[in-house]
């Protein structure tokens, strides 16, 4: 077996090598315990609080890409070939504060200060990605960072002020870090090019292989290489973003054994829009999927906006969400309603399976030993079809759905020609509502049809009580979502049906 | 010579009282350079600990097999109750809180054993291997069951004034009702942690994330069986406290210290977030039943209130929390005939503890629910009912607990806010809007809040501080208060800077340390700045008097002609730098350190007779919130909030605004998304931020208008006439809850009072909407074809 026994990455712009690395050692552990960099905090060790946020930079298209991630559940071997930027990296040459830091400090945006480094890093990623974000975009960028002290207002204000501070830096003092996205500073461009060169020098041609007593870590570069490894190591786990697998280690204290990391396989990170389908590679992140889906299915892109938080969407993949087989995964009801199919690979053999048939039970799929998902194929919208996907949760942002419902109707002349309805959170797996669909198909789209279809949901699902909601609430909401669907697509005057639109209506 | 115009040319010293200076650690926070307990470099050989928790709510431990724990990789020791050298208890008042459970477990999550290993991961992995044989005992898990079995941690208490029964009987109108209020997890971003280092001759140094180092010190000394002077507890800053770190850090500090003593090595115990949730107490959940009699104008004639709270398995601070709830049930209202019964329920769940608001939040919710029900019954604006019940100084001004409310500014504050928030006009507009919108409904509410400032245990209202002046004119400050993000260190530094007439950046504050300031009270009850500010002021004034006397003698002017301002000292015509004077004074052998002490005046509350003055003063505030709800899903959105809060003469308006906003949003979490769920076996199912949802940035209102009351000035001699601001703003979030209730009420055209509990989660709201529709006999709003409305 060829390969290296260590990983290389940039930290504060300098190359670092980590050898003898346990595959599941987290970036947070490396920073705090191995390198003594304690700016990054552990608040929850499950990717839900953002106190450990760091930024990963890598080459993307022709430039650099900056993504906030949760260090607590990011396995350190995934740093290979990237630049890691932490709160300590930001201070200027003479200890001057970075514009993000200056804005937060001046704006009274820290109280206890424990969450602050995480906010600094999420805002830094925003600063390097968006030139002039709206308040809604700032809010979206911070959905993964909890603060229990400030009430957020000063942080949101600082997110605007940081650009003013950044723009006021004299050209002579600028570098790529202090220059906001879209800056036309020559000095910043020069230093950024130099930084990009350093990243390029880390580029690896062969597969990365780490062997450790707790298990091995393989990062194949090609689909063929993955397929071969997968056949040889059928019990190895596939690691994509790790936003769920990470918790097995930090929360269940479990060991994962051998890992096959799919984050370096270009073929799995591509997407293609064909005549009939949008095809998305299984390792495309949810953040990228959001962009890809927006033109075809804006409703689905809007739903993804509420999937976990930016640091999770930056690493978590569409394929991972599907294979994880949660009962409430946000993307599955929508993809099932849209008639998505999965392309499965096993060695050189492939087969295509409808997503609705992919689940064999709670957290179970039809994947065979040595098989993996390579692509998700989503039919393009048809003329005359309407699609809606809604997630209901206790908290709007960064929450797990209590109920997630998706509807694809083909309407003509006030009739429902065809209907596909799917829900998550109502059964052990996301599933179609066949009784409901039967009521809808071929019927006039009326209040009567709506009520009968809603009643049919009680035949499709037997939801349970849990911490996110009672069975009764789940069913009520599912039925009410059909009412919302009718209000939005039925033949009558529109009324306001969404809180989100309130500002326009009010 | 003494030209007063000379002063005008001087730059005033920076950062005195009233200046909006930033937090003393802000520049460190943003760089990740402000160390918290877990960031302290570890001593070589440091071990890490994890706790083995009970999986049963109430059980006898029949047998334990720890062999596989001991054999697990990296494990150094496993300790149990028998290994505690001193007293196996950390209870703050009653000694009913074992550090490690022995024989019987009292709740699911209770620590039983301490596993000590080379790494935290090894300790946590090993802790899962413990095999415990439980013999289940009957468990009481909720308030209703505890009331039925009369299971209480401390006896029930009744507070009565006037003749409530007669007043109720004679009242023209009567209503009764009930509301349930959920608990709340503190969820400080920094969880519980203690790091214990053995010191020479039986000593122990403990770094503890605690609001009360003195209490931790005593508990550790008792657990180790040594005198308090051998134990030092230090704390530079907390990553959030909110009351959760008032009593309960002692358990983890004791555990770490016991292991450190047993193994003679440094031991760190940092709780995993889930364990933190499972072990520690939360805000008390309440059941409130009431009966109220009132007249046609909405004036309350008699009120009977039953407050039952879930205290958990031990007393902790529950008696005080519930006493405070009783003492605050009046809010802004004069209650002539009132009877409040308070039950403190013992259950087999986490021992509930202090949480910002400390019973007041629940009491105010109860009172405001009564007000809203009266308004609904009379079909008038609740604001009008509130007004007709306000305290009237000199006329209707005695609280049920006997204290005169002398500083009531509610009426002016309410008027001011009502105007600035355009409450009445918006309320009318929303009602019209709701009539035209069948699915989305909007609601608005204006609610007041009042909180008495002082510990109700009178002796706790004391503080000490030290101020050192060095010969270069820099100043070191130390007091017993704990910095947990509230800006206490900044405010106290401002006080000293003001007194000495120097820039605030000449001052530094030391960590709270029991070896420097003994017997300090907890930093709690919104008293931090009052107590420590006054103590530091006293120390600074001593030094100032000493320096003034010295300068007067040296420059031959009367002492009163010596002034400290703008980093200078003026002694008649002579002007010299502050540092210069310090150097001169040192050389003349003038002592440049001083201690200061403060005891809050006027307090004479007697807990036995429940009479006398409990609080030095009251803090007031009011808020208007506007929300929208989705009647199909129960989802809500907060649209606009207007707050007017009285911080007295603010010591630091920027920090105070931060307290107001932060407190409000924390309260908003309590009334909306923060829901604690236990299963039927008493196991907490919401034990991390994945399942327990505190507000995020997107939850705050797009329009958030916060004002400090400009005319605010404490009538009492508090520190520079400011008012405590830590807790009071939390109560302002009740406006969110009642705005949601108002929106729900619209589905029955405001004819009936909705039944809505706290937290108003989407599920609660939808249930309330459906129940109200059923009760009113109205069909769904969306069944009406809206096109007919034109």
Mean pLDDT of chain B: 96
CATH topology group of the largest domain in chain B: Aldehyde Oxidoreductase, domain 4
What structural class should be given to the helix and strand makeup of chain A? alpha+beta
Estimate the helix proportion of chain B, in percent. Answer: 25-40%
* Alpha plus pi helix count of chain A: 17
| CATH fold-level name of the domain at 6-201 in chain A | Ubiquitin-like (UB roll)
As a percent range, the share of strand residues of chain B is: 15-25%
Count of strand segments of chain A: 20
Detail the poorly predicted runs of chain B: 1-8, 783-790
- The count of domains of chain B is 3
Poorly predicted parts of chain A: none
Instruction: Please state the oligomeric state of the protein chains shown.
Output: heterodimer
The backbone outline of chain A, from C-alpha atoms, is globular
Radius of gyration of chain A: 24 Å
Tally of separate helices of chain B: 20
The CATH architecture assignment of the largest domain in chain B turns out to be: 2-Layer Sandwich
Note the topology.
The complex is a heterodimer of chains A (about 500) and B (about 800).
Chain A: E1 6-11, E2 14-19, H1 27-34, E3 53-60, E4 63-70, E5 83-85, H2 99-106, H3 116-127, H4 135-141, H5 153-167, H6 186-201, E6 208-212, E7 215-219, H7 223-232, E8 237-239, H8 245-250, E9 259-261, E10 271-273, E11 277-281, H9 286-293, H10 298-304, H11 310-313, H12 318-324, H13 331-337, E12 341-346, E13 349-354, E14 359-361, E15 364-365, E16 371-379, E17 385-392, E18 403-412, E19 415-424, E20 431-432, H14 434-440, H15 447-460, H16 471-489, H17 502-505
Parallel strand pairs in A: 1-5, 7-9, 8-9
Antiparallel strand pairs in A: 1-2, 3-4, 3-5, 6-7, 10-11, 11-16, 12-13, 12-16, 14-15, 17-18, 18-19, 19-20
Helix pairs in contact in A: 2-5, 9-10, 14-15, 15-16
Chain B: H1 5-8, H2 26-29, E1 47-53, E2 59-65, H3 67-71, E3 75-79, E4 104-105, E5 111-117, H4 120-127, E6 131-136, H5 143-149, E7 152-161, H6 164-170, E8 173-181, E9 193-199, E10 203-208, H7 213-224, E11 231-235, H8 249-263, E12 267-270, H9 273-279, E13 286-294, E14 300-312, H10 318-328, E15 338-346, H11 360-378, H12 382-389, H13 410-420, H14 423-436, E16 440-453, E17 462-469, E18 475-479, H15 488-500, E19 507-509, E20 512-513, H16 528-555, E21 562-565, E22 568-571, E23 574-577, H17 578-587, E24 593-599, E25 617-630, E26 636-645, H18 653-671, E27 703-708, H19 734-745, H20 762-776
């Amino acid at each position: 077996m060829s390969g290296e026994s260590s990983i290389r990455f940039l930290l504060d712009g300098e190359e670092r090598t980590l050898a003898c690395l346990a595959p599941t050692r987290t970036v947070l552990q490396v920073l705090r315990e191995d390198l003594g960099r304690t700016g990054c905090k552990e608040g929850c060790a499950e990717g839900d609080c953002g106190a450990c946020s760091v930024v990963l930079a890598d080459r993307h298209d022709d430039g650099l890409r900056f993504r906030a991630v949760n260090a607590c559940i990011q396995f350190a071997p995934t740093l290979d070939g990237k630049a890691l930027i932490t709160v300590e990296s930001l201070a200027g040459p003479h200890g001057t504060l970075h514009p993000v830091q200056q804005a937060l400090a001046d704006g009274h945006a820290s109280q206890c200060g424990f969450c602050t480094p995480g906010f600094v890093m999420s805002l830094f990623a925003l600063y390097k990605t968006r030139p002039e974000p709206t308040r809604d975009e700032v809010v979206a960028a911070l959905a993964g960072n909890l603060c229990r002290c400030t009430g957020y207002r000063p942080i949101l204000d600082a997110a605007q002020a940081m650009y003013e501070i950044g723009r006021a830096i004299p050209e002579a003092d600028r570098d790529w870090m202090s220059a906001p996205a879209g800056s036309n500073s020559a000095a910043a461009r020069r230093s950024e090019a130099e930084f990009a060169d350093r990243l390029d020098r880390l580029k690896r041609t062969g597969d990365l292989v780490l062997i450790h007593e707790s298990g091995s870590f393989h990062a194949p570069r090609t689909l063929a290489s993955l397929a071969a490894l997968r056949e040889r190591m059928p019990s190895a786990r596939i690691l994509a973003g790790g936003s769920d697998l990470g918790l097995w280690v930090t929360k269940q204290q479990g060991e994962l054994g051998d890992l096959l990391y799919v984050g370096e396989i270009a073929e799995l990170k591509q997407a293609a829009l064909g005549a009939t389908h949008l095809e998305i590679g299984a390792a495309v992140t949810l953040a990228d999927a959001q962009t890809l889906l927006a033109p075809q299915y804006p409703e689905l892109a809007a739903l993804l906006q509420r999937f976990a938080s930016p640091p999770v969407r930056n690493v978590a993949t569409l394929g991972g969400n599907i294979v994880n087989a949660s009962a409430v995964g946000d993307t599955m009801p929508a993809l099932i309603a849209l008639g998505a199919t999965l392309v499965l690979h096993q060695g050189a053999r492939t087969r295509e399976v409808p997503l609705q048939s992919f689940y064999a039970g709670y957290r179970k799929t039809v994947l065979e030993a040595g098989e993996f998902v390579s692509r998700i194929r989503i039919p393009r919208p048809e003329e005359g079809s309407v699609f809606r996907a809604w997630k209901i949760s206790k908290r709007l942002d960064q929450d797990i759905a209590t109920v997630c419902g998706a509807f694809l109707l083909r309407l003509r002349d006030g009739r429902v020609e065809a209907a596909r309805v799917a829900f998550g959170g109502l059964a052990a797996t996301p599933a179609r509502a066949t009784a409901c669909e039967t009521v809808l198909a071929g019927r006039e789209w009326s209040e009567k049809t709506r009520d009968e279809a809603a009643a049919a949901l009680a035949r499709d699902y037997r939801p349970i009580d849990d911490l996110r909601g009672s069975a009764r609430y789940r069913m009520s909401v599912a039925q009410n979502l059909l009412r919302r669907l009718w209000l939005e697509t039925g033949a009558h005057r529109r009324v306001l049906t969404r809180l989100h639109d309130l500002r326009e209506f009010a | 010579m003494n030209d007063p115009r000379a002063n005008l040319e001087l730059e005033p010293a920076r950062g005195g009282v009233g200046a909006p200076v930033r937090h003393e650690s802000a520049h460190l926070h943003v760089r990740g350079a402000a160390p918290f307990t877990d960031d302290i470099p570890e001593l070589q050989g440091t071990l890490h600990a994890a706790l083995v928790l009970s999986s049963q709510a109430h059980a006898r431990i029949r047998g334990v097999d720890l062999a596989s724990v001991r054999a697990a990789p990296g494990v150094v020791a496993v300790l149990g109750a028998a290994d505690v050298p001193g007293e196996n208890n950390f209870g703050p008042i009653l000694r009913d809180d074992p550090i490690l459970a022995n024989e019987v477990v009292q709740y699911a999550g209770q620590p039983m054993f301490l596993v000590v290993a080379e790494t935290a991961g090894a300790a946590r992995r090993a802790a899962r291997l413990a095999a415990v044989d439980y013999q289940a005992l009957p468990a009481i898990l909720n308030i209703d069951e505890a009331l039925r079995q009369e299971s209480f941690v401390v006896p029930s208490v009744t507070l009565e004034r006037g003749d409530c029964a007669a007043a109720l009987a004679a009242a023209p109108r009567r209503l009764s009702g009930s509301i349930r209020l959920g608990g709340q997890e503190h969820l400080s971003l920094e969880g519980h942690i203690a790091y214990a280092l053995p010191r020479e001759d039986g000593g122990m140094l403990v770094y503890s994330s605690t609001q009360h180092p003195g209490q931790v010190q005593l508990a550790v000394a008792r657990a180790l069986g040594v005198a308090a002077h051998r134990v030092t507890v230090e704390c530079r800053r907390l990553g959030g406290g909110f009351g959760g770190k008032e009593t309960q850090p002692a358990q983890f500090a004791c555990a770490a210290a016991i292991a450190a003593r047993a193994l003679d090595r440094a031991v760190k115990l940092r709780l995993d977030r889930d364990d933190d949730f499972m072990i520690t107490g939360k805000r008390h959940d309440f059941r409130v039943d009431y009966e109220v009699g009132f007249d046609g104008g909405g004036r309350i004639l008699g009120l009977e209130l039953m407050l039952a709270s879930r205290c958990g398995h031990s007393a902790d601070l529950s008696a005080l929390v519930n006493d405070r709830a009783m003492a605050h049930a009046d809010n802004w209202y004069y209650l002539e005939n009132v009877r409040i019964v308070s039950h403190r329920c013992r259950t087999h769940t986490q021992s509930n503890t202090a949480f910002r608001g400390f019973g007041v939040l629940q009491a105010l919710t109860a009172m405001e629910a009564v007000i809203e029900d009266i308004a609904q019954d009379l079909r008038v604006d609740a604001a009008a009912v509130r007004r007709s019940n306000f305290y009237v100084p000199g006329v209707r001004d005695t609280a049920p607990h006997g204290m005169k409310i002398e500083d009531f500014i509610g009426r002016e504050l309410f008027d001011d806010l009502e105007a600035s928030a355009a409450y009445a006009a918006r309320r009318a507009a929303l009602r019209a809007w709701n009539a035209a919108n069948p699915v989305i409904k909007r609601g608005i509410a204006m609610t007041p809040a009042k909180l008495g400032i002082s510990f109700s245990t009178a002796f706790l209202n004391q503080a000490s501080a030290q101020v050192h002046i060095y010969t270069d004119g820099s100043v070191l400050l130390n007091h017993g208060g704990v910095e947990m993000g509230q800006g206490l260190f900044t405010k106290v530094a401002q006080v000293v800077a003001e007194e000495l007439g120097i820039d605030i950046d000449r001052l530094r504050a030391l960590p709270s340390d029991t070896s420097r300031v003994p017997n300090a009270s907890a930093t709690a009850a919104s008293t931090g700045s009052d107590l420590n500010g006054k103590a530091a002021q006293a120390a600074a004034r001593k030094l100032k008097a000493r320096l003034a006397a010295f300068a007067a003698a040296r420059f031959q002017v009367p002492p009163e002609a010596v002034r400290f301002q703008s980093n200078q000292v003026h002694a008649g015509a002579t002007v010299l730098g502050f540092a210069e004077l310090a150097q001169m004074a040192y050389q003349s052998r003038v002592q440049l350190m001083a201690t200061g002490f403060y005891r809050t005046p006027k307090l004479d509350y007697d807990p036995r007779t429940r009479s006398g003055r409990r609080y030095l003063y009251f803090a007031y505030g009011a808020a208007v919130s506007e929300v929208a709800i989705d009647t199909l899903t129960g989802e809500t959105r907060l649209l606009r909030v207007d707050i007017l809060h009285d911080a007295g003469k603010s010591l630091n308006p920027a920090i105070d605004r931060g307290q107001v906003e932060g407190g409000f949003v924390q309260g908003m979490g309590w009334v909306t998304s923060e829901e604690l769920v236990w299963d039927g076996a008493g196991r907490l199912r919401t034990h991390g931020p994945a399942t327990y949802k505190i507000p995020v940035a997107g939850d705050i209102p797009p329009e958030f208008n916060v004002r400090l009351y400009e005319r605010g000035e404490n009538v009492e001699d508090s520190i520079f006439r400011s008012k405590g601001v830590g807790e009071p703003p939390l109560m302002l979030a009740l406006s969110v809850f009642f705005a949601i209730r108002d929106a729900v009420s619209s589905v029955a055209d405001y004819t009936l009072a909705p039944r809505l509990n706290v937290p108003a989660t989407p599920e609660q709201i939808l249930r309330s909407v459906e129940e109200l529709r059923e009760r009113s006999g109205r069909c769904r709003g969306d069944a009406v074809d809206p096109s007919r409305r034109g």
